[in-house]
Write a structure and sequence with these properties.
By secondary structure, the chain is an alpha+beta fold. The chain has two domains: about 180 residues, Formiminotransferase, N-terminal subdomain (Formiminotransferase-cyclodeaminase, Chain B, domain 1, 2-Layer Sandwich); about 120 residues, Alpha-Beta Plaits, CATH 3.30.70. The chain is built from nine helices and eleven strands. Helix 1 packs antiparallel against helix 2, helix 2 packs parallel to helix 3 and helix 6 crosses helix 7. The longest helix has 18 residues. It is globular and about 55 Å long. It is found in: Cytoplasm.
Amino acid sequence: MAKLVECVPNFSEGRRPEVVAQILDTIKGVEGVRVLDASTDASHNRAVVTFLGEPGPVKNAAFLAAARAAELINMEEHQGAHPRIGATDVIPFIPIGESTMEECVELARELGREIGYKLGIPVYLYEAASTRPERKNLSAVRKGEYEGLKTAITRPERQPDFGPPHLHPTAGATAVGARPPLVAYNINLGTADVAIAKAIAKSIRGSSGGYPSIKALGVMLEDRQVAQVTINVCNYKEVSLHRVFETVKTEAARYGVNVIGSEIVGLLPMEALLDAADFYLRLEGFSLNQVLEKRLLDQ
């Protein structure tokens, strides 16, 4: 397999499809890049795009997309349930095939430097690309969100890795990193009490003593008046989707609340879903090789 890199930028726009379409057109216009998925959420006011290609074209597409987002999205007017610091909130690189995490780290740092100094957008490196241990976790980079970072960025400990020591006037800041595949997984509760979602999120996230590879927040979906536990499953092999789901369901029951649905944002490895199917169907002796599509792909 060729050296491929997956890129999953998140843009702070989920309510204006024409804006998302223009950003997508920018990415699609780069030769050697293939857009695999694009999803938007109006409550989060966010778009998640997944594209793939060899390192050079992928980095170029990410840069051009960030530049286009800076032209189209004004963070002074942005509101949404999801934490964010900029028009292009986050750009992670994920190694695929023969590419390595080290190569993705170098790619992230090169892109961060370009965005910082060519676009005038402050850039924070996170996860495997971070140069400071306290910035490895994306939530630490996003602390205070766009509004809080306006003043926090002036403090020595919040200075960006690249770019100016102040937010771009409309595009804010951007986090660029390298990481393994994760699953963005949201669970909706049968209540409008966001305090319950926040309590459940605290009980499962690693930083609060829950599952070590889980990041979670409680947010309110205003358009539906539904509280949501929004989750990043950073290592689905360590903590499976069904374990996360069952834990949230159990915690919700303590408050007399039901789980009314869940959703996957963007793409996920097939294995993550098959693990859940294996669990709920109580399969005996099941193997991934029994999946028709996998056998076809392996030929």
